[in-house]
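QUALITY CONTROL LOG
STEP: pairwise intake check
CHECKER ROLE: data steward
CRITERIA: each record must contain a sequence immediately followed by its structure tokens, with no blank fields

ENTRY 1 OF 2
RESULT FIELD BELOW
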Amino acid sequence: MGWGDGRCRHVLFIAVVATTVAAPVVSAAPGVAGPKVPGIDVSEYQGRIDWRAVGWSPVRFVIMRATLGNDHRDRWYLRNVAGARRNGLAVGAYHFAKPSLARWDPRAEADHFLDVVTLRPGDVVPVLDIEETGGLAPGQLRSWAIAWLERVHARTGVHAMIYSGNHFWHGSMRNTGWFARRGHPLWVAHWYVGAPAVPGGRWARRGYTVWQWSASGRVPGIDGPVDRDWMKGSLARGTISSITVRPAEDGVVTADRIACGERLGWCSRLAGPGEKIVLRATPNAGARLIRWTGACAAAADARTCVMRASGDRSVSALFGPAGAAVSGSGTPSPASAGSSDAVSGPTNTPGWASPPRPVPASRDDDDGDGTRFSWSREGDRDSIGGSYRRERRASASISFGFRGGAVTLFTVEGRGMGKARVSIDGETVKTIDGYGRRFRAGVRDRFTGLGAGPHRLTIVPLGRKDRRATDRWVVVDALRWGGRLHADPKPASVSWARVADPSASEGAYVVSDAPGAEARLRFSGTSLTLRTLRGPARGRGEIWLDGRRVRTVDLYAPRRRYVSILVAAGLADGPHVARVVVLGTRHRASEGTGVPIDRWVVTYRPERGRPANAGAPSH
């Protein structure tokens, strides 16, 4: 696809839904000043693709054909999506249009496309590829495109990005700037030039978002030529963003495609990059808005919050009695404390009725010395808080603090669920078995007679299951205490599974194979090394430093051996945050997907009065 010599071959329209942030790639390639992200676009004509090899290349995003016309599906689409996701690439999909004069045609083609693809936060924007006019005049083709774009917006809440070349846009779309002024970004195609020609008055002075600069690129893992692309800036300009609003008592939060609060429950929507979202807080009779929390915290007690979509944003509002005093010392709900760093998407799990919907990862612990952990987070529309925390390895644990004489634990049942021990204040109160022939959310266990005051509830997976179960997952959905439902309570402590090993630095290492689980270290120093364990049952993980992905590691090896991985050197001697994120994927020869952590080694400047090297335990 694209334009190399000024003669247009086709036009694309891309539904922009936007944003997980990846570290931009900076290089001196022609025509792109500043940061940019390399990508490719593919279809069944590329044949079988080795996505592992692509994932190890500089390519960070891929857009692939999904559908054509009203009924055709690209035969490699599903395999391409799965392979690219497994190897850490941001994915997107496009539809090859077959325009006609029939009034129903653009909507039918949009419906066919959206029925095949699934839009997720962090995915690259989906695409409408128009290479044929179908005999339509420029005005008719423009109307066809508008109808398709409006249908996509009606079903997803997303505006669309248009892909075209300068020659075609002048001749077939009369060089209109209408789409740019309506907020549709541009993916411009112009091959083998130092800088692309941008139509529509340089897209109404907004410029392009993506540039397809070559049709004959070479990428490891792909036989033959492939289209190459640059995304200007970072992936935030062309990947899916989400806005999540948590339930609030005594009031309702509303916006376009959002209505949350009281019995309305939680809600979320997709949004384009930089899209303006206006939220309104409406208290019930006899109540007042005390303050916004999360991404709208700066709005304080104003009835309206205006925010720009970027990444995964979380919002809520705190309401109270009309006569209540407003205190600046209150603590916002953990569920609405704002967005967090994006992590890899989940894999499908036996026991869920449908593939889980990814949600923003949660930082489960406060920063401090030592390694902090989180369990995997999986989104599901049937959950109480919009997502579950889950783990399956024996001896992992998660604890929650609560007050009062009773507490209710909400979990789920399903074919993939296992067994766990529940204790309160150190005493076992029940062993739960999550197995069920059918998926069922809202499963509750109530514990009473605990006495007033603070308590701690702890859930520990046993690594066991019913003989009929397909896996050993243990899920925590929500808690209820003090007369209130806590849809997304913040854990008091979290741990991965501990495995005794005399060869480990402290006689044991920790490990998780739950996709999206993470270990986080806050440190000050000039370099950081991770000691981990390779072996025949090990999987892949990502290493992040200060919000940027440093590398993806594959820990598979035919034999067990401890290795040290340099995370970074030459750092400014100040505070840093390192994270290890479990991907839940593996080498084809591996027997498992576990990612172990034995020890961190931090190097300091000796003149600061500390040893030159110091170890940070993993547990």
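ENTRY 2 OF 2
RESULT FIELD BELOW
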Amino acid sequence: MNVNNMRYLLLLLPLTLLAQIPGTFRVTGPVAPTATNSNYGASIPVYNYGGLLTGLGSLSELQNLNIYPLARRHAGQMAVLTNGVAYQLGSDLTTWTTYAGWTNFQTVNNFTVKTNLTVGNTIVSTNEAVFDGVNIGQGAGNAAGSTRVGKNAMNGSATGTGNTAIGEQAGLSLTTGISNTLIGNNAAPFLTSSGANVVVGKDALFYATFGDTVPGTFGYTNGTHNNIVLGVNAYYNLIKGRNNFAAGTFAGYNVTNGSFNVLLGTHSMNDLILGDSNTALGESTLWKNQTGDRNTAVGHQAGYYSTGDSGDNVYLGYNAGPTSLTTEYNKLYINNASGDPLIFGEFAPVPYLKFKGRVGIGGLPTVGTALQSTDLGQWININPATADGQIHVLNTGTAYSTMGYNGTTNVNAWGAASGVSYYGNAQAKPIEFVDGSWRMRIIGTATNTYVNINVLPTSPTGLTSGVLWSDSGTIKAAPATNTSSIGNFVVSTSGRGVDFSATANGSGTMTSELLTDYEEGTWNPQYTNLTPPTTPYTMDVLSAQYVKVGKKVTVNAWIRTSSVNTAGAAGALRISGLPYAAAVYPNGYAAISIAVARTWGGDYPSGGYVVGGSQVITLEYRTTSNGATTDMDSGDLSTSASGNTLVFTATYFTD
């Protein structure tokens, strides 16, 4: 078959098919409707019958179309009048009834389809499609200038501009919020007046509600604003927070109030409830932290067990951080596995670093006792990966410090490159520092150890606290710049002293081995009574001293009276004025020893005792050599001058 024959066949084929329709005849020219008030649509692909009729002005005009051949009619056929009312043809192919599912189809700003909107064989929407900006989905709100796709997306009386909500109930409650992008089923469904949020993921930012009272501004100070949340259930419970970034399923899942956090990874900061300025990068990082601030964790499960309000910590590496639930602050962990970190440190209160392993900074030294010209520069090498195992420190120039064993001898020195100062066995000087006339030398062997310190002149000035020095073989201490105190060891804190706990204990019950006090001085003994006299007795104290060692006080005295008036006196005769109160009953009671008793008016004192809990001594006498002791009273006193002489001593304990 040639090309011309093929063209002829293709021209005849549609005419042949048209002839198969009853009530029609073959034509060889164009066919067009003769009516001018109706457009006979033909969109059903079966023989071109049925179809949508438009351009009709009234129902009567539509009914006149019943003369339309039955073969061209189709049950369910639609017709839309020029006033926008739609009719549908019944199954009898005669009756036209109003179609309630179609309310408007006009050339206006909106395009609405309230049946199935079909493209090809795909149903785009089974409910409603609205194009105004873009608004697709049933009940998708009425805010102009926003894009809404999905059932109940941005539903309600939304007035904020620049929002995008895609997914069922995405931004469901949004009202005055602006510039939000919400993608995913239930993405931020309770957000109201918040702005500048980017939320992607099912149930992401689910409970966020709070917004500024003044909408439409970007200077947000409160509410839920400027957040980027990516991932299913990410920041699920956040109610109030701003300037957060969260990416990962369940990232920040339990956070209710937090700002300035950066979370990247599934379950990162999963248990955080309230916290700001945290950075968690990696799966399950900072999982157990609940109310902490300013933590940084990088690596799988870094800071996982940091709990409570742990804050200001840095965790770097796989599983870096504590190995069990721990509340901590200002810590540094650098590691690649659970357990003791390679580097541990604290930022406060006293900053420090601890290294698990060898540390080298700047390079390795030349092994040996003296530095080489090639060693110039600055470096520190602690426990290097070399056979010498030394610690080397080099400063600019030739000054250096070396400590360790080089494999042959101890080569440990401080000072210049010539090596004038040593620590170790080199030159038989275990420790020696030399700087002009200042020297410290410590030498020890298995059988002999001694210290030689010779750093200060006989009368040094300008010394600081804690300087120990030698003067002609005598060790002295300079506790302060006041040289008058040189030679004394000063206890600076009450309760501190000399600890003898290393010594053996007696057979009794030991209660303390700390010597905390020493004192000596004079005291003022005074005769008196349980009820003192109206006029105190006039005393003549020839001698009265005391010594206190720890809690033990020893007193002695040589006393007498120069004038005595006993008027008003009653009760036991006493000596008052002890330098320290005795311990309370029964520990404070102690006997006195009387050496001399002369010129008394009645009975003579033979002994006495310190009254516990007081600063007095009660005097006793015996009526017979083997009789019981009895309290003396004022009637035993002599009223003559230089009477009532007594020489005695007493030792007692204080509390």
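INTAKE CHECK: passed for both entries
DESCRIPTIVE NOTE, ENTRY 2: The chain has a mean pLDDT of 74.
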